[in-house]
Amino acid sequence: SIEYTVPSSEYVTLKVYDILGNEVAELVNEQKQAGTYEVNFNAGNLSSGFYIYKLQAGKFSQVRKMMLLK
């Protein structure tokens, strides 16, 4: 799961990309109120390896790397 915090009411997107930059999942795409959220990432159809997720909330953007092990 991926946990994130939204400081104020914003339209939020959270997408996962493979290491080549191809989008493999869109986990969030909606208006969110201020608060902390947790979203489950079902990676059953993905291979082990490194993935990147990008959180966009209004003008705020954050990119993080994660490793998937099966």
Please explain how this structure is put together.
The chain has a single domain (2-68), classed as Immunoglobulin-like (Sandwich). 0% of the residues lie in helices and 67% in strands. Strand 2 and strand 3 (23-32) form a beta hairpin. The strands form two sheets. It has a four-stranded antiparallel beta sheet, with no helix packed on it. By secondary structure, it is an all-beta fold.
Features of this protein?
four-stranded antiparallel sheet; elongated; mainly beta; 70 residues; Immunoglobulin-like; single chain; 67% strand; 6 strands
Please state the oligomeric state of the protein chains shown.
single chain
CATH class: Mainly Beta
How far apart the termini lie comes to: 15 Å
In what range is the share of β-strand residues? over 45%
CATH architecture: Sandwich
Order of helices and strands: EEEEEE
Largest sheet: 4 strands, antiparallel
Whole-number total of structural domains? 1
Order of the strands making up the biggest sheet: 3-2-5-6
Overall geometric form: elongated
Q: How does the helix and strand content classify structurally?
A: mainly beta
E-strand count: 6
Number of alpha- plus pi-helical segments? 0
Q: Which range best describes the helical content: under 10%, 10-25%, 25-40%, 40-55%, 55-70% or over 70%?
A: under 10%
**What is the overall pLDDT average?**
95
What Rg is obtained from the alpha carbons, in whole angstroms? Answer: 12 Å
Low-confidence stretches are none
CATH topology: Immunoglobulin-like
